[in-house]
């Protein structure tokens, strides 16, 4: 997997690289601190599976960043990795071709969940914003039954991960995962992981009822 990170801040790029490589050692990462440098990469003919980009760059207007990237890498998964949270800015970038949005101000666990999913080829849009594809009623149903931590565990469980893998991602013990799963099964009235996963996916509109 090839990843391009477009961000003017060295520490931001370094932090993202550290997080990405903690999940996989089978990735090649390229850095660009300006759009001019990124353009050299993009025009070389190389394909990048993921392109993380800040919208605020020193040499291009934020309204044109995604459009210019998309012109060179339409097949790449463009991820907005930015401090910007204004709905008009994000919506504009998504219309131009971005497929995921991860705010730099996200909490650590949300960041980990997002990065893990992106490396697995899944798109990411925060569930607590208007950009999520899940319906409000489905979200409300999940929130009514599960705590935020339990929702995180269910999200990873639905990806087919083991208790050990979930524990590693969330930074807690396998025993704690088992306790949470027991509480989840009781809360949603199911008896095993398969039933819990089906319950969750149905409410995420990822399976037909």
Task: Note down, in words, how this protein is organized.
This protein has helices spanning 10-23, 35-42, 65-72, 87-96, 108-119, 136-145, 148-157, 163-170, 174-188, 193-203, and strands at residues 2-6, 28-32, 50-53, 77-82, 100-103. It folds into 2 domains: 2-105, Rossmann fold (3-Layer(aba) Sandwich); 136-203, Winged helix-like DNA-binding domain superfamily/Winged helix DNA-binding domain (Arc Repressor Mutant, subunit A, Orthogonal Bundle). Strands 2-1-3-4-5 form a 5-stranded parallel sheet, with helices on both faces. Helix 4 (87-96) links the parallel strand 4 and strand 5 (100-103). By secondary structure, the protein is α/β, with parallel strands linked by helices. The protein contains 10 helices and 5 strands; from the N terminus they run E-H-E-H-E-H-E-H-E-H-H-H-H-H-H. The chain is elongated and about 55 Å long. 51% of the residues lie in helices and 11% in strands.
């Amino acid at each position: 997997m090839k990843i391009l990170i477009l961000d003017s801040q060295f520490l931001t790029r370094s932090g993202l690289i550290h997080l990405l490589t903690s999940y996989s050692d089978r990735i090649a990462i390229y850095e660009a601190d300006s759009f001019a440098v990124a353009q050299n990469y993009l025009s070389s003919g190389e394909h990048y599976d993921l392109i993380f980009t800040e919208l605020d760059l020193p040499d291009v207007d934020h309204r044109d960043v995604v459009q210019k990237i998309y012109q060179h890498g339409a097949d790449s998964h463009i991820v907005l990795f930015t401090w910007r949270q204004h709905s008009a800015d994000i919506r504009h970038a998504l219309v131009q071709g971005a497929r995921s949005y991860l705010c730099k101000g996200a909490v650590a666990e949300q960041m980990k969940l997002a990065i893990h999913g992106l490396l697995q080829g899944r798109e990411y849009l925060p569930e607590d914003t208007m950009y999520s594809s899940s319906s409000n009623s489905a979200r409300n149903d999940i929130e009514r039954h599960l705590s935020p931590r339990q929702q995180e565990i269910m999200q990873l469980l639905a990806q087919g991960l083991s208790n050990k893998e979930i524990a590693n991602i969330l930074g807690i013990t396998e025993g704690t995962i088992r306790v949470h799963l027991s509480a989840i099964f009781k809360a949603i009235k199911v008896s095993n992981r398969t039933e819990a996963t089906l319950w969750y996916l149905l409410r995420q509109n990822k399976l037909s009822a």
